[in-house]
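Note to self: keep these together.
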Amino acid sequence: MNIYRKEWMVWAIIALLVLNLSTWATIYWHTRSGGVTDKQGGQSGMAENTSIRYSGRYFRDELNLDASQMSEFIAFNPLFRQNVRQINQEMARLKHQMLEELSGPECDTLKLNELSDSIGLCHALLKKETYRYYVSIKTICTPDQQQKLKLIFSDIFDLTVQPGHYGNGAGKGYGHGRRSGI
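Structure:
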């Protein structure tokens, strides 16, 4: 019976070794692929994933755009992406300022109101850029492609949010709000 126990122990050690190696490989892969959280608690790969998801290749593949449609798409896509990036950077800067103000010894409510209004303006600009982008894509699409486009953008507009709930993670920590920068 002693020989069986040793054999079992060897297999248990091998299994634990494989489990540890796979755990370390997974952690390494996630840190390299950008799936780790950043210092503000957000997903560092999120903007990158959104960027990839709404890239020219994504729309070409999802909508089955032909060469002439792609050449039109390439004409307006870079400007949209640049504008959205600038708006998101400004919004991040304003949110950081707001956090700094809130974290200080005394909060200046006038400054907080001003920052809130500025963040709201950024959100409005973002929505305007998004609808212009949608319309630009829609104009190059066939009716069938327009239906697919509606499905793609339904995720951006997150039509599943119920009144009183924020984002898809309502009640699950501080993950309220938008999932992407669009």
